[in-house]
Design brief:
The protein folds into two domains: 4-130, N-terminal domain of MutM-like DNA repair proteins (Alpha-Beta Barrel); 143-266, Orthogonal Bundle (Helicase, Ruva Protein, domain 3). The protein is built from six helices and twelve strands. The chain has helices at residues 4-18, 38-45, 143-150, 157-160, 172-181, 195-214, and strands at residues 23-28, 50-56, 59-64, 67-72, 78-83, 92-98, 102-107, 114-119, 134-135, 167-168, 255-259, 262-266. The strands form four sheets. The protein has a four-stranded antiparallel beta sheet. The longest helix has 20 residues, at 195-214. It is elongated. The mean pLDDT is 92. The protein binds a DNA duplex (16 and 16 nucleotides) through loops.
Amino acid sequence: MPEKPEVITVCKTLEKQILGKKIVDCHVYWDNIIVGKTNEFEEKIKGQTIEAMTTRGKWLVFFLSQDALLIHLRMEGRFYFRKMGEERSKHEHVVFVFENQEEMRFHDVRKFGKMMLVPKQDVFSLRPLNELGYEFDDPMLTEEYLLDKWQKKRLPIKSVLLDQSIIAGIGNIYDDEILFLSHISPFQRANTLTREEATLIIKNTRIVLEKAIQMGGTTIKSFESSEGVHGLFQNELAIHGRKNGICPVCGNRIEVTKIGGRGTYYCPFCQIEKKEAA
DNA sequence: ATCTATGCCTGGTGGC
DNA sequence: TGCCACCAGGCATAGA
């Protein structure tokens, strides 16, 4: 499940392969992946060259000649490169054809991925990118900002860290890691967090995501940045996914539960929930 | 305004 | 072995 580090890894990998290339044809085989009209998408993208790439939250942003192409990998989206004419697998739902007859194919078993075209000049000030909160490394991400956003939120901090309109780019895995490193219970309600805890969360978000980016992301069953390109951060995960594991800090059993419908790993000894003041 | 439930999807898993 | 119900999970949307 790609989160910010994985999306950055995909972006860097793709840049080497497609920057400067012209899309001469495009075929969509699953309508729901396209936000808007499929045939308009196919027609509009034809003839445009990929001039630059970046990320915003978990979105990939491709700057084309006229438009910006936004792609969200959601759970299992990835890209494969094939020669024109090679058989299309049943999970390849969008095909971009380049001039040299090479194809970039969007592969997505679950069909949860999304893509759309947005006017290039306004891409950051229009939906969906304008609804995103700060990036993890944005200096504007401060304690004051978080305390203000959290003040009205009675949901568990685990859920609130997944809110892309506050901090963009955190997903279920790094969420657990950040809270574990911060010694904060995932159940703790966001509006009860202190300034010191906000400081810790900011610090650990930066530590975890930066290290994961350095290591090319986390390869957990469904992620590879491109065919055969795997990240290494899974070896660094302290808590997430360690079913029946022990806490690397205190040696007690790691607990697995559900918060807001998401699988959550935490150490009940290191991450103690503080009771709300009466 | 905030929060919860539902739908989108399919491969993998566990029960029988 | 085969069949089947159930589940994960980011995010938009509808409803409470």
